[in-house]
Amino acid sequence: MFRSFLVLLVALCTGGLGHARNEGVTADEIRLGASAVLSGPLGPQTAQYGEGSRLMFDAVNAQGGVHGRMIRYTTLDDGFDPQKAVENTRQLLDTDKVFMIYNSTGTAQTAAILPLIKEHRTLLFGPVTGASVFRETLNPYVFHVRAGYASEAAKIVSQLRQQGISRVAVFYQDDGLGKTLLAELKKASDEEKLAFVAEIKVDPKQPDFAAAAQATEKAQPQAVIVATAGTTFTSYIKAVQSTAARPAYYGFSVASMDVIHRELKERARGIILAQIMPSLRSTTVPVVAEYLALLRAKSPSAQPSASQFEGFVHARLLVEGLRRTGRNLTTESFIKTMEDAGEISFGRFNVKYSPKSHNGSTYVELAIVDAEGSLRY
Fold it and tell me: pLDDT digit string (tens) for 105-160?
């Protein structure tokens, strides 16, 4: 039902490229904005995306900006509420006059703001959602960066089947993100012929993790795919760990390692997560080396963060696109530049756009949390 609504909404919000509005670009600045989840269970993780983006933007601005223009980035908190995301986005477009919506967060939130993107003919670059519904039909104003949830789900389910694990349960929060991840997992399970023994959900407003843990214990899974993020992810695992059940845990890239490490500490060991960015241990990868160098230059004691790094990569790609577009920056010129660029590579992380696809990267790997609380690929 939720997916059907998204499909209809996306269909209504896609179409040909009309004359774009082209506000938010002045002689000396480029204004970006986003409605983001800055409070609630997902808030700490989303804040990291913003910190990573600003690390890149600050470095660029310190060097004189992009073709002499400073990048100004405004974020407004929607608390994971789609209606608030609409209100925030309308403010960014009508009052703040941003050039593009950059790195907004949430699946339901993305669906909700698409009518505004179409109405204002404004770019939406790097929304933090991997939902297939936004990728199956080209929207000329939307550019994805991260790989889609379908790729992550396929990787996880394929790995389970290859390992001979047959009893697999899915836990999800009954919201837009959870339903989207569940739908992707069901498609992957059909493809791999690996049926789930249980689908366990919690109400996002009144989550009963004890009941979810009891349902998990009753199902006796060998592995649970935790299709959620933030503290919902860790609260569920804590609850299951208090029972006799001892499944392996798999998760999507939206699960924050910072939250997992903080909430679970040594109990996080062995959790396996899909990752859509190169490992921060891979210091020979150019974009990893660039991120680490800028982070340490800003604060020698700062700890690298996977979520922060993802925000940095989004910003790095955007800056590359702005530079290639040149001084004559408009919505139309940016779209043409990105579609004509061919493959853009930052080492192991590559993206490619065309007039037929704005889906960006397909990079997905699985990583395990080790005894030190770090991800090993």
Answer: 998 899 999 999 999 999 999 999 999 999 999 999 999 999 999 999 999 999 99
Chain position carrying tokens 């997902």: 42
The rounded distance, in Å, linking the Cα atoms of 370 and 271 is 8
Burial class (CB in 10 A: 0-12, 13-18, 19+), 146: buried
pTM of the model: 0.83
List pLDDT tens digits, range 67-120: 999 999 999 999 989 999 999 999 999 999 999 999 999 988 999 999 999 999
For tokens 């991120």, name the residue: 291
Measured CA to CA in angstroms, residue 81 lies from 41, 42, 85 at distances of 13, 12, 6
- Evaluated on CA atoms 313, 319, 324, 328, the torsion sign reads positive
Tokens of 201: 């959900």
Token reading at 86: 């609409």
What the chain holds in terms of domains, given with CATH numbers, is: 2-147+284-363 (3.40.50.2300), 150-275 (3.40.50.2300)
